[in-house]
Amino acid sequence: MNFHSIALRDNGRFEEICLEWDLCVAIGYAGRDQAGVMAHVEELRKIGVPAPEKTPSMYWIDPERITTNTILWVVGNGCSGEVEFFVAADKGGNLFMTVASDHTDRALETVSVSKAKQACSKVIGNVFWKMSDIRPHWDEIELRSWVRKTPQEEEYLYQEGTLASLLIPERLLELATEDKPYPGKFSYFSGTLPLKGEICYEGDFRMELNDPVLKRSISHTYTVRRLPDRN
Question: What pTM was estimated for this model as a whole?
Answer without folding.
Answer: 0.95
